[in-house]
Structures are given as C-alpha cells and as structure tokens.
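Why show two proteins at once? Because comparison is the fastest way to build intuition. When a single record is shown, students tend to memorize it. When two are placed side by side, the eye starts asking what differs. So, the first record is below.
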Amino acid sequence: MKGVRHFHSINFILWLSFLIFAAFIILFTWVFQTTLLRIFLGARMSDDLDTFGKLAYDKLRAELPVKENFSDIERCVQMLQEDDRSATVYVYAADGTKLYPTDNGVEEFALVVTEAKETAAENEETDFDFAKGKLIAAMQKGEEMKRGMPVMLSDGRMTYIAYMGNVQAMETADGTDGAYLYVEYSTAMVQAVMGTMKIQLVLISVIVIFLALIISVLLSMKLTRPITRISRAAQRMAAGDFSVNFKGEYSYAEMDALAETLDYAKEEIGKSDELQKEVLANVTHDLKTPLTMIKAYASMIQEISGNNPEKRMKHTQVIIDETDRLTSLVNDILNLSKIRSGMDSLKVSNFNLSEFVHTVLERFDYLTETQGYTIERDIEDELYTEADQEKIEQVVYNLVGNAVNYTGEDKKIVVGLKRTEQGLRLTVTDTGKGIPPEEIKTIWDRYYRSAETHKRPIRGTGLGLSIVKTILLKHGFDFGVESEVGKGSTFYVIFPDK
C-alpha cells in the first residue's frame, strides 16, 4: 500500500526553511556564547592570573623575609593591584593564618604572627587550604612549581598560590614555617559581561526570528507570483485556450526559460490539436464518401439493375472498390495506432534490402502497364540491413505510392539504393510541384500536405507518410525529405549496413 503523499506550498517550505536556518544560527550562537566563549575567557583569565601571580611573587620575594617591612609589602601590593584591579593579594602562613593584609595596620603585623599559633588549630578548611593542597600535590608529582600555579576553586573562582619560603618569626602551631602568596581573581566582571551578552542574545534571537519570517514571506511572494501566473495560464491552455502567453518580465532566468518552454509546448500542442481535428474531419469524410456510394449503388442494384447483368456487374464493382477503400483506411488507422501505442513490437531480422526493394516495386508494375508510369531503378546489389521486414515493406510501399500520387505530368519516379558513409541510403524521387519550405517540418504529420496542393491519392488514405514516420522512429533510422518547389521531392531513409 502506497503511503499518502503530503504536498506543501512553496510559501510554507520557504518559511519553514528560513525558520530552521534562523534557529540553527541562534543555537550556534548560544552554544558559542555559553560554552566556547566561557572556555575561552576562562583560559584567558588563567593566563592573566598566572602572569600576575608570577609578577607578584618576584616583587614580594624581596620584601617578605623581613618581618618589620610591612609598609613596604603594602606599598608593593598596592602597586600590583593598581595594574590589575581584579586581583586581590594575600599572604598566608603555612597553617592558613592570614598574614597580609591585616585589619589593624602595620603595628599588628607581628601580633598576628603570634596569635596565629594559638588559633590555627581552630580554623576550618578555607579556600587557601584547598589551593595549598593542589600546590603540594603538584609538587609531590615532581612538577616545577618554583613560582606557583593558578588553581580553579570548586565554585568556579580563580586563585593563584605560590610558596614564598621561610619568613623570620613565622613558626606556626604545627611546627612549620614559611609563607604562601595567595591571589584571588575576581570573575565579577566576566559574569557581568556574560549576563549582558545573554540579554543581548535573547534580543538578537527575537529579532532574527522576526526578520526570518518577514524575509521568507517577501521572498516566497516574489518566487510564487510568476509560478502562480504560469500555473493559471497552463490551466487555461489545458481547457483548450491556446491564445495564452507564458512569457513575461521575470526576475530570474529559470522562470524565463520555463515560460519559453511552455510557449513552445503550447504551440506544439496547438498544432497537434489542429492536426487531430483535421485528421478526424478528413477520416470522417473518407469514411462517409464510400459508405454513401455503397448505399447508393446497392439501392441502384435493388431498384434498377438487378435484372441487367452488365449494369449489375458495374454497380457491384463500385461497391467492391469502395469497400476496399474502407478496408484500407481502417487498416491504416489501426496500424498507425498500434505502432504508436507500442502494441506492435518489432521483429528484427537480417535480410537483403536490394532484393526486398525490387520485390516491393513489382507491386507497382500494373501502373507502368496500364497508366503510363515510369519507375526507374538505381539499386546496388547485395546490400543487407537489419530491421522489421514487414514494417519496412510498408515504408517502401508508402513512399513509392506517395511519389506516384504527386509526381509530375511525365509520371516518372526514380527509386535508388546506394551504400554511403552514413549507411544504406534509400531514395524515392518524384517530379511533382515540390513542397514549400514552411511545410517541410510538418509534412510527415499532416493528413493532407496542404489544403491548396492536395491531390487525392489513387488508392491511398492520406496516412501513408505518418505511418512511415512512426515506423522509422520506432526503428531509430534517420529519414527526411529534400524538396524544391517546381522541381519535385526526394524522400530518403538511412538503413544500417549489415
């Protein structure tokens, strides 16, 4: 069971496509802003903190070993923090006691060191303890940590820690001595920037979606307007109005090319429609005439010549001739229909085309004997080809019959068969009035050659050339006609040389 097909308009497809594209851009931007940018800024902050920490280490290293130089340390730290206001410098003892800065100023620096011995055991784990543990672990792994390292705290804040070495009078409660440089790096500015960017991103998302909707609507209207115009014209043409014009001022080449193609199709369909009407009218006429004559002569036999053998024979012969005409017409129509529909498949075989053409021409001997026709033959011997022999017989017979019907007053026809570079070229030439150049392209498809120059075939139906074209197209053979008004016509077929 076939699934149900769902069709959507171009407007909907364009609208959906622009919306999906806008959503993809917004999603990509969100990912960049919230993830990639955060990673980038984190790496940049880590580099800046590492640079600042090393600078602070180098400058404080010269001041810290002397316990009385607290004012110099403070001056040094202030100068450092003026260069980067995001950083806050601390000095901690090994047990976690904060040595710098102190709330009581320079006088209390030594007092802090003493009190640290009494209170260190009571301190809970601090950010400093966490950072110091990371530093010690790195040093135990053998990593070079002479000037410290950046450390990321559990809540995402950045710090820097470095071991400053021994400091006079800094022995702590756990028996260790020495001091640590500890730098806190504020991420408030980064967080503020990220928050602002998120607000801007929300606004940008709304604007992008709005613009995508507007642009998709405008673009779809521009794209579908000519398509709608062409569609309406095509509907009028389908209803039988061949006066429609598909051409117009289009803004893109594809629609202009489509319009030209549809105009060409309109002209060809119009010709086909006229041809069908013409064929129907002429076939109806050809059917009506013999039927009328059959009925008339049958009535004459019944009413007048029934007892007169001579008249009866003459009248019955007319009935037989007209019946043959009807049979021939019906057979031609059926053959043409079968060939075009593909029901009559080809039965290809290899045969002697030279002998075959001679055999077909023998069927026209009665014309040379009774009506003064001359059929000249210029046929090379032993030329073989590959085709459906029965259908090629129809081709040769119809071409010669057409030449008989339209040749000049000299009643001369020339049939040739020669080997050429293209293949075996069969030609049938008459000495008639010729075909006007404007009718060369349509002569194969028309029931009559033209209303003015038509001469009723001797025993034809008017469908001979159409049958020839259909058979040769099915074979894939090249064919055509060369004609000059007043000098006759030459019909040719190129057969494969086998």
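Second record. Ask yourself what differs from the first in the token line.
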Amino acid sequence: MNIQGFLFSTVEAAIKKPGRRDLALIYSEVPATAAAVFTTSTVKAAPVLVSCEHIACGTAQALIVNSGNANACTGEPGMIVAKETAHLVAHRLGIDDSAVQVCSTGVIGVPLPLERISSAIPQLVEGLSSGTLDDVAQAIMTTDTFPKMEAVCGTAGGKTYSVAGIAKGAGMIMPNMATMLSFIITDAAVDSDFLQKLFRNAVDCSFNAITVDGDMSTNDTCLIMANGMAQNPLIREGSIEGETFAALVCDVLLSLAKLIVKDGEGATKFVEIRVSGAKDNSDAKRAAMAIANSSLVKTAFFGQDANWGRIFAAVGYSGAEVDQSRLSLRFDDVCMARDGIFAGGDAEALGTEILKQKEFTVSVDLGIGSGTATVYTSDLTHEYVSINADYRS
C-alpha cells in the first residue's frame, strides 16, 4: 500500500548482537500532525522522556527506533544518547531536533552504544528511498515471532487516503496508556485537536485492552503521524469523514493489538474476555482485566481445564461491584455457570472442548447494570517461563 510522502530505511547497527537489521527510520517528506501515547509507568526510558518533550508541539517529521536495547534506567548518559540520536538524525535530514521522535526496545539497564548508532545514521538516511514499512516492522522485533502490520484505505472529499501501522510486542504486555511499540502513519490531512482525541480513544479500546503477562514496560510508545499528502479537505471532529477516519484508525490499532496477543511469548491460545452487566464500564474493565491477568486462569486455559471457579474468583477480587448470586459465565456458547452456580450436566465436558480451540471467548455477566468491556489475553505456558528466563543471554 502506498502511503504518500513517507520513506523508510533500516540498517544493522549490531546494538545487541550482529546479524540483523536493528535500527530503523520513518521519515515524512513534510512536517506531519502527530500524537502519541506513552507508558504511564513512573520509570520511563530516556527515549520516552525525549519523545514526550518533542511531541508537545503536536508535529513530527521523523522517527528513529532501535531494538536490542531499551535505553531505560541508564541515567543521564542514557538521556544524552537519546538526545544526540535525535540531533544526528535531524542534522542529516535538515530538520529541527524536536521534529524527531526517538524509540528504543530491548534489554533494560544496559548502556546504549551511541557510537554504533551514530556510525549507522548516515547509511540509514541514505537508504530512505529503498526501504519499506515491512522492513521497519521486522527491525523492531525482539521476542516477536512475526512482524505485525495492518493497512486500510478511506476517502475524504473525493480523495483517497491510507492508514497503515506496525507494532512490536510479545511479552511485558499490559499497556496502560508492554514492551510495546506501535507506529501509525497516514497521508490524510487531519485536524490536530481531533487527531489527539481520536488517537487516545483508539488506544484505549485496543492497546489498553490487551494483556499477555500483566507487566507494563518502561518504553511503551504509540505514535501517529498524519502528513496530509493525500490532499483531502481537513478531516475534523463531528463530520462524517471524521467518524470514518476515527473508525479506520481504531480498526488498525485493534488489529495490531490482537496480533500482539496472538504472538504472546509462548502463547498457544487467543482469548477474548467479555464482561457485561457491570455497574459501569470501568467496573466491567476491572473485572475483565482481573480475569485476563490471573495466572491461575491463564494456566487453566493452557491446560484446557474448564475451571470456571478461578474466573469467578478473579471477578470477586477485581474491585468491581459483584453480587455472586447474579453471576453467569459462558465459554463461547456453552453455559458454565448461572446465578453463581455450576450449570451442571455436560457443561464440564463441553467447556473443555471449547478450551481445546486456539481461539475462544469467555463471557461473564455480572447481572447488575449496563457496563461492558472487552479485553484480549493469552494463556500462560512453560515456554513463557523459558523465554523470559533466558531473555538477556
């Protein structure tokens, strides 16, 4: 898919180990309206702190990202590396330092070797005419097993525009804005205030609705750049074109979020958790995330054990308002419990068959109000432990 006005490049900088491209650049030929959401962790990586400062003006023109090293918990030297990286890219491109977003992903607490990045930047910039967004998606992978991409098209004022995105993440996933990075680009012209608002809403219903292991990263970053090269009339809030554009952005982010869960470290199951009947949507989200993050629930999914009691237990400690006599639970269309009591009969056997599937839905009705929430999670496996036990080696 052609995203007008965006160029891409990747190179090998051997940041963690040689043998793969681990440094990438996305460049808009014109300044782009931009918005970003970062980790809410109070322990933030140096590139997050720098990018927060740069994005404050609401525009961006370039993004440089490395894998293999998070540049987190690296003190003032880490800040110097992040700022100098932005400066070197800006100098080569002839733009302001503040127009460059900086992202990193990888091992925490290890100094990021500036000399390897600085020596690779000239080649990175020179290669902008030959790279692809797919190249960038592959360069930002760490424990991911496949690159994650999505793209859609829309129209506004008779002009066709595109929205495309990439993401990385497989472990340390419970964004609250994992190790998670996602970059969205569009050639649509979009009002800045509207872009900020719709993007936060899109993140809430996508990346803030997934969990693999309940861990939040120091580096979570989700960024969108809209450069207007499609030459459509400015898309504004309250218009039909605005509703369409917002829906497309949501679709792209949700697709990428689901891919992250499906690629969860060691995961064999993709599970949609639906909670309804809550006092309000916030309560529903609390209950859904408690289920999705429960190690006991997730290991039961892996073991194909229809242990519905673990799910009710998670709902009970979630902090949501609960009346256990009104609780009901289904695995896909199989009723496991009603009014807080086991459904009996063939429910156990039928539920076990559902859990043998690679994908299924768990639906919990609290029976109290109209609040709803949907989150996505994976199972917890032996392989997850192995991957994370050996991560730094």
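One difference worth noting in the second protein: The chain has a mean pLDDT of 91.
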